[in-house]
């Protein structure tokens, strides 16, 4: 049975945009990988449901202090004249499920004295909102990932940056007692994964809507999701220092996969729209 998850898309969209800006406009990727590669390197070989993109999103979120900024915003709401509009706007923008029953007129009259019953009620609500913010990390990382996993340009660029790092440190890695076990003895590249788990094949198939990413051939009438004549392709090939992380995979027909081979990091920005806005029918 399929699981259903609560997604905060308002906050998730903001986070996804921040991740893209951090990747393309800053040095956060290399800071992230230099700091975390020791414990994440195994993910380059064995597909993990918590992908490298998940890890990068988490790193950016924690580095940016977005949750901390929200907590600080709530803690600094001290003007009774603006409290109601500020808190309503913040709750709506961030989809915060905290229902408050406050008499804002009383808070205005007491100038938020921190002693009356209404101020004590506000203090309780404030703690509830802060607790929600501090515990919502997973709830916003998943929708951010769900947005970014469809951005194949970003996926390609992310894994090309990773490949550049591996190529730069290749000699050191293959001679390291810690990392050499991850490399194929003959090719000196990362070991190829020989089995794609069902959850991964299903996820890539549905993300790519059952179409070959390159020539857009509809494969859904020819195969089933888990069995059939289609290929799981590395966007950045292993021969070009690519890896087996789920976010480096795409759906190709056999012909396109054979043509692409290890010649480059080819993908596509084409998608199947839900409907054609320009089609009168």
Structure description:
It is a single chain. The protein is mostly helical and 281 residues long. 51% of the residues lie in helices and 3% in strands. The chain is built from 12 helices and 2 strands. It has helices at residues 9-25, 28-40, 52-64, 66-75, 80-94, 104-110, 117-134, 137-148, 152-168, 170-174, 198-207, 254-260, and strands at residues 231-234, 249-252.
Order of helices and strands: HHHHHHHHHHHEEH
| Separate helix tally | 12
Strand order of the largest sheet: 1-2
Number of strands: 2
Structural class: mainly alpha
Largest sheet: 2 strands, antiparallel
Percent range of helical residues: 40-55%
Which stretches of 5+ consecutive residues score pLDDT under 50? none
Q: What would you call the shape? A: elongated
Strand portion, in percent? under 5%
Concise summary:
With 281 residues, the chain is mainly α. It contains 12 helices and 2 strands, in the order αααααααααααββα.
Q: Topology, pairings included?
A:
Layout: H1 9-25, H2 28-40, H3 52-64, H4 66-75, H5 80-94, H6 104-110, H7 117-134, H8 137-148, H9 152-168, H10 170-174, H11 198-207, E1 231-234, E2 249-252, H12 254-260
Antiparallel strand pairs: 1-2
Helix pairs in contact: 1-3, 1-8, 2-3, 3-8, 4-7
């Amino acid at each position: 049975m399929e699981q259903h998850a609560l997604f905060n898309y308002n906050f998730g969209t903001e986070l996804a945009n921040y991740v893209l800006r951090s990747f393309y406009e800053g040095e956060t990727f290399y800071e992230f990988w230099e700091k975390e590669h020791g414990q994440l390197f195994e993910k380059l070989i064995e597909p993990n449901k918590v992908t490298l993109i998940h890890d990068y999103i988490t790193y950016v979120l924690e580095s940016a202090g977005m949750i901390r900024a929200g907590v600080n915003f709530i803690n600094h709401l001290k003007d009774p004249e603006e409290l109601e509009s500020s808190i309503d706007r913040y709750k709506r923008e961030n989809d915060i499920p905290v229902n408050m029953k406050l008499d804002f007129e009383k808070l205005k009259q007491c100038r938020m004295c921190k002693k009356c019953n209404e101020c004590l009620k506000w203090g309780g609500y404030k703690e509830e909102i802060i607790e929600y913010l501090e515990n919502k990390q997973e709830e916003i990382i998943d929708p951010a990932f769900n947005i970014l996993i469809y951005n194949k340009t970003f996926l390609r660029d992310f894994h090309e940056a990773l490949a550049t790092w591996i190529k730069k440190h290749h000699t050191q890695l293959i001679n390291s007692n810690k990392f050499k076990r991850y490399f194929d003895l003959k090719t000196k590249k990362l070991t190829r994964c020989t089995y794609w788990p069902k959850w991964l094949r299903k996820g890539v198939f549905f993300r790519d809507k059952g179409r070959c990413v390159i020539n857009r051939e509809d494969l859904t009438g020819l195969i089933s999701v888990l069995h059939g004549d289609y290929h799981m392709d590395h966007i950045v090939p292993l021969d070009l220092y690519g890896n087996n992380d789920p976010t480096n995979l795409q759906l190709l027909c056999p012909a396109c996969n054979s043509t692409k081979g290890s010649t480059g990091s080819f993908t596509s920005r084409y998608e199947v729209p839900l409907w054609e806005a320009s089609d009168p029918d």
